[in-house]
Design goal:
Layout lengths: L1 E5 L2 E6 L1 H20 L2 H5 L4 H19 L3 E4 L4 H14 L3 H4 L3 H32 L4 H6 L2 H20 L5 H30 L6 H8 L14 H29 L5 H19 L6 H21 L11 H25 L4 H15 L2 H15 L3 H30 L5
Parallel strand pairs: 2-3
Antiparallel strand pairs: 1-2
Helix pairs in contact: 1-3, 1-13, 3-13, 4-11, 4-12, 4-13, 6-8, 6-14, 6-17, 8-9, 8-17, 9-14, 9-15, 9-16, 11-12, 13-16, 14-15, 15-16, 15-17, 16-17
Length: about 425
């Protein structure tokens, strides 16, 4: 960590290790504040969101006053996300889930279709409002599904393309829209899911609760601590699943001729290894060890992501772009609460999935996971939600929204070169 002067302003260069350390500190502070705030507890705001927002605010104040700039190294973001998805995969007990495989498969298709239709509506909402606000269609699309579903990555990719097509503010509009979406995603998802659970008196299915606390063959019983060798074995297998998952994703990407998220491969490998271990009993699987590891990785990921957001990009955002993003948020909340919840079955799993939908439909996949995680910690596990939402939100939905987005670009902007 060192301080450098850039244009007369001191810039604190923070390396990757110190960035993680600061994120961990924000987690502790966020937990401290939430434990003492009935408001934060009432609306199920996650601890990393509380701490991350506080850090983001402090960084913003330093920037606006010119006291200090921060340059964070975010190298650990991807490994943390990979670790969390791998832990999710290894947490799936397929034996206890077999009775619901057919229903789960149908539910996945229903959720995928609902998300696809919603993403199309997001683009249509953006174009319609953009027309009335006399905004260029390119900017309107950047404030729609591109940034809401695709996040900062898609906003940057499409933004650079639009810049080359003659829209100079495209990068700023995309970054600001994605940032707003990420903030709203973690603000509305948890409260919406809790509202559905409380209003309809929902509870998780008994078999899911049993699966989350009981040990299957090959697992370490909760009352018998793991030995040091067994802890090492669990962590070695966990890391091997992460590495193999990256290779699996690369292979799937080559077959599909598209960029396939590496962390989805980690989840798939985790599911397979857990299932094989249940069959052949290679080692005692530590349910709590892997689960706690994955949860910590997710919390650190979100804390770093929020802490390093450059919120001042919102200063130059056009009022019309903000209005479009706000309309996207209102639309997402209403459609999730009144329509998607019923389409998915009006049960506990549906409520958790609606919270996840608000996360990846407005911000990014990590937002969806933290929304679901904060609810399941309080009310109980939903294996269906944690199986379906990551697969759809991080991969399958891209196949749909990318297609109709490109069609709309060709229709309303100009042909891509």
């Amino acid at each position: 960590m060192c301080i450098m002067l850039q244009h007369g302003v001191p810039v604190l260069q923070i390396d990757a290790i110190c960035t993680v350390a600061l994120a961990a500190l924000m987690l502790l502070l966020g937990g401290f504040l939430k434990a003492r705030s009935s408001l934060l507890q009432k609306y199920c705001l996650p601890v990393p969101v509380v701490g991350g927002f506080l850090a983001m605010f402090l960084v913003l104040v330093c920037h606006l006053t010119g006291i200090l700039e921060f340059n964070f190294d975010k190298s650990f973001l991807y490994p943390f996300m990979m670790a969390f998805f791998t832990a999710i995969g290894m947490g799936v007990n397929l034996k206890s889930f077999q009775s619901g495989v057919n229903t789960g498969g149908k539910l996945l298709l229903v959720y995928w279709a609902a998300c696809g239709v919603i993403s199309l509506c997001q683009n249509l909402i953006g174009l319609t409002l953009g027309h009335f606000l006399q905004m260029e269609p390119a900017y309107a699309l950047l404030a729609s599904a591109i940034s809401m579903v695709g996040g900062h990555g898609a906003a940057g990719a499409y933004g650079s393309t639009f810049v080359s097509m003659g829209y100079p503010a495209a990068m700023e509009v995309g970054a600001a829209s994605a940032t707003l979406g990420l903030i709203f995603a973690v603000m509305v998802g948890g409260p919406l899911g809790q509202k559905l659970i409380v209003r309809h008196h929902l509870q998780p299915e008994p078999e899911q609760q049993e699966a989350s606390v009981e040990s299957a063959p090959g697992e370490a019983p909760a009352q018998v601590p793991l030995s040091q060798t067994e802890i090492y074995t669990n962590m070695v297998v966990f890391l091997l699943c992460m590495g193999l998952g990256t290779l699996v994703s690369e292979g799937i990407g080559c077959l599909l001729h598209m960029k396939f998220p590496g962390y989805v491969g980690g989840m798939l490998v985790g599911v397979a290894v857990r299932f094989l271990n249940e069959q052949f009993h290679w080692y005692r699987y530590g349910v709590r060890l892997i689960g706690n590891t994955g949860e910590m990785m997710l919390n650190l990921y979100l804390a770093i992501a929020l802490m390093t957001l450059q919120v001042w990009h919102l200063q130059g955002i056009l009022g019309s772009v903000f209005l479009i993003v706000l309309a996207q948020v209102v639309f997402m909340v209403l459609v999730a609460y009144f329509l998607v919840f019923r389409v998915l079955g009006s049960n506990y799993d549906a409520a958790i999935m609606c919270a996840g939908l608000c996360g990846h439909g407005l911000g990014a996949m990590p937002s969806a996971l933290v929304n679901m995680n904060v609810l399941t910690e309080k009310y109980g596990m939903s294996q269906k939600a944690f199986l379906i939402v990551p697969v759809v939100g991080s991969c399958l939905l891209d196949l749909f929204y990318q297609t109709h987005t490109l069609i709309l670009i060709k229709l309303f902007v100009q042909n891509l070169t």
